[in-house]
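Quick question: who can interpret this fold?

. . .
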Amino acid sequence: MIDAAQSTADVGLELWGNLALADPVFLAIIPLALLLLAFGRAREGRAAAILPGLPGGAPPSSLRQRAARLLPLLHGTALVLLAVALARPLRADVETTDTTEGIDILCAIDRSGSMDYEDLENGRSRLEVVKEVVGDFARRRMTDRVDAADSVGLLTFAAYPELVCPFTLDADALLDFLSQVELVRYRVEDGTAVGVALAKSVDLLAKSQATSRIVVLLTDGENNREEILPLEAADLAAEAGVKVYTILAGRYVYRSGFGGVVRTDEQLDSTELEAIAERTGGRFYRARDRDSLEAIYAEIEDLERTPRESSRHVDTFDLYPPVLLAALALYLLAWAGGLTFGGRTP
């Protein structure tokens, strides 16, 4: 790379690579200078033709005469280089800085006993399907190259909430934690504490400095813990500026009956989940199968976008000094030649 001094000039014309010109208008000198040189040579040729020819033809050119013919080439090259130097060639080093105002996303997943039912996809529990869909969503958000990559955390809940993975940009780490999420093992842990889980989520996000903070809360049932009611937690979220998307996942409602658990035609009451979303500026969704669940997370992904902002900084470096020196050197050589071997003899 050419060693050059930093310049105060701006790029006027980009060439190729990182080369540019500050004042390309001076390139117009080149054809004008070459035309003047050609006109001068033509006049010299016409003057020579006036002289009477010698018998037997012209004698062979001497070394001095052959060297003199180089003078127009030296003059022309010097003028071309001078025009290029006046056009002020630059090396433009462009530095682009991406400033990302990412989103902090907390995925809250219900792992209560009812998440073992197999009605989102045949042969697979609700929790297994949810883990895969949430994992794909998180991976996309954390490795996004079009918009800002987001920091994602994972919280699970049944009777009690648990922060499984703190907010991270490491997709592999979060997916590893997600793969280890299991259904509750003991009855004392079972339940659907939507209000408590949301309050915990808000508390975690309240410490975030992100421009946008959201909770994607998925459950397959109604709140049945009274420590913190869902709408009380929704008010906390609204005050903290946390947006909540709520998802009710499951096709059927199951009840205990004769012979075990039976499927019913009942519909779960989604009033509280809808109210949570409305109070916090989010949306409520109902997922009845895997396809609808994937579509829900895809829609949330489209809704929550914070574009990447790029700032372009250009440092320019002058390249004209060696070009100017070369032009002056050729001009002096042509001038010296004109006084010596290029001079006319009386």
Summary: The radius of gyration is 39 Å.
